Request: fold
Amino acid sequence: MRRSQLFLKTRHQAPADEEAKNAQLLTKAGYIHKEMAGVYAYLPLGLMVLDNIKQIVREEMNSLGASELIMTNLQAKELWERTDRWDDKKVDVWFKSHLQNGTEVGLAWSHEEPITAMMTNYISSYRDLPAMVYQFQTKLRNELRAKSGIMRGREFVMKDLYSYTPDQAAHDKIYNDVTKAYLRIFDKVGLGDSTYVTFASGGAFTQFSHEFQTITEVGEDTIYLDEEKKMAVNEEVYTDQVLDQLNLDKSKLEKVQAAEVGNIFSFGTTKSDQLGLHFGDEKGEPKPVYLGSYGIGITRLMGVIAEHFADERGLKWPVNVAPMHVYLCRLGDEPEVIKAADEAYEKLQESGVKVLYDDRNVRPGEQFADADLIGLPYRLVVSQKSLEAGGLELKERGQEAAHISELSAVVQTLGKACQA
Amino acid sequence: MRRSQLFLKTRHQAPADEEAKNAQLLTKAGYIHKEMAGVYAYLPLGLMVLDNIKQIVREEMNSLGASELIMTNLQAKELWERTDRWDDKKVDVWFKSHLQNGTEVGLAWSHEEPITAMMTNYISSYRDLPAMVYQFQTKLRNELRAKSGIMRGREFVMKDLYSYTPDQAAHDKIYNDVTKAYLRIFDKVGLGDSTYVTFASGGAFTQFSHEFQTITEVGEDTIYLDEEKKMAVNEEVYTDQVLDQLNLDKSKLEKVQAAEVGNIFSFGTTKSDQLGLHFGDEKGEPKPVYLGSYGIGITRLMGVIAEHFADERGLKWPVNVAPMHVYLCRLGDEPEVIKAADEAYEKLQESGVKVLYDDRNVRPGEQFADADLIGLPYRLVVSQKSLEAGGLELKERGQEAAHISELSAVVQTLGKACQA
Reply:
């Protein structure tokens, strides 16, 4: 994509009232715009990152056999009353409004109730089970404070998956499969090494839920980590009894700050009982359906990735989530430089490499600063000097070493490195 | 996709309180679920149709040089006060809520104000113009009545494009380009022949806006149509003076009902003046920016397409928007039938044909009824009888004639017919 044709403008300063590093960086680099505290628009580069993360998640959800759908933002009060979660004292993050006839409506902070109630239309027999559906949905949560940038927003995008199964065994199998799929997802977005399955508090039905916690200084959670076993315990359930139960040795645990990037939760048959979701088994006997709920905060994950890899010069995206792969700097407006840059742009795109081509004729320092700030995995420079030295100058983001190569070699290198 | 693995269940009856034909059909065929009046969830097949329509629109927007982004649902009261559109007496479709500190917020019914205010961060010089951005966004509108299914929802998806230009001439050029792109879009989704550029009321800045109206009995608008000139006049501006001005002959006009599937609107410099969006021209003089706003109701368009092509048996999608291309019926569970159906499923998918494979072992009548109701462009039947007759039975949705061909011929025919 030619920079002159992309809606993109970097800024030297983040807004003075922006405290979170992820939002400071993403704002300066032109990925997001703050509408109000905890409410961000995603500009073209930001939307590309979100779409990449979504696609990684989508492929894993599909491989589980789940079907994608999209629920609604407006929700009926009546549903949430049936599970006793309408009252602001029970759920303190509701945004509520009302229809013109006065009927109160809720704005979606979660979808367990609507989706389970909907399922009463689609699940009636054991033949309809298991069913797995997921969505990428904008959630609104009326957080008292919102100072963590896109890591905790009042408006954010979540992937939520729901599993409906006939019994505990079928539920457990899917729960395990989702755990594995989640670990693959965090691997693919580059956070595998620093993300841990973490035991957290459960609910009426199970002792524990499971969180996926990524170690980061700015995380809001405190977890106790067993590096060897690759598992952790959330502070909220950190007791001697729990450690015994999980066979963890207190002396080996490390206390760290972490951000919850995913969670999985067993509801058992609680919600189905409350909302009347039953099925007839092989003998025609009515049975309640088991519900599992599995979330990944897509925008939060983007924020965590942004902070995790950034350095003092700006963002630094892993190839899989980067909005594009290569920042192509064209230094100078000599015909041979323009010709070589145009050619590199075309050949790379033909090989499936996504190129952000800085065709603005601004000075080198400005291009280099933007390349670092925007944080694509590679920077490629075309100039009189590089051409005289034998080609184009390729550098990885975050490395100092740059190498001059002919275009064909660059295309080969990047074609491989940037493969989907 | 194997039907046994897709979340899909058709229904014999639409909900009793559903008046609109589009919603009745889409509900019965398993595309949508009604959450409340005017508020619909999109089930897997419905989401596929939406995604196809979006992709057609997206390609045209990108070809105009516009960049995709995504704004927010939560909006600041202050912005809308500056343009005098916060008051419920001025805009009667607001949903409003408030933060925990009492600050009032609006839920997005439109985005002209937030996006124009945002642009003050990104447009300061003539070098930043023109700028074109668009989004696919969920809008919430508190309609007094919502009885038209997905053709007029309280929650719906809209594509909105905004153009920012330095002067009237640059604006007019883009306005014309968008008009042409819109006509291409309505062609591609199959409504080209029945969609007309229609003169409608303008605003403070221009006498007219332009609507794209598709003729349909259930349309909410009345328009006067000149079939020869392929243009129309909305009833709201249907006066002798306007007809003279547009050089239309009253006696040649036909009065028809139509649904507005798109509109384009010139704001001139009004919004920029109100929201302080100025740029410095070549001499450094401050000038207000011209705004154009261009909408297509994506979910409404899906509803119009659904109604437009449906027959007494169900939906009937044009190839470009159909969720999948072929409904593959497997009749019987004899090994050779299963083998032939599996092979057809694989070979067709390899050729880029999207297949919904009914692998449920239900009786033929149920499969055929579902195939018609769901409305994919083709139905392919594999049975003992078809194999004995020499292959597979292919039929177009809406046609009575069916033909037996060998798989290789079917693959060739459908591979061509279903090309993207």
About this structure: DSSP finds twelve helices and 21 strands in chain A. Chain A has a mean pLDDT of 96. The domain at 326-417 of chain A is CATH 3.40.50.800 (Rossmann fold).
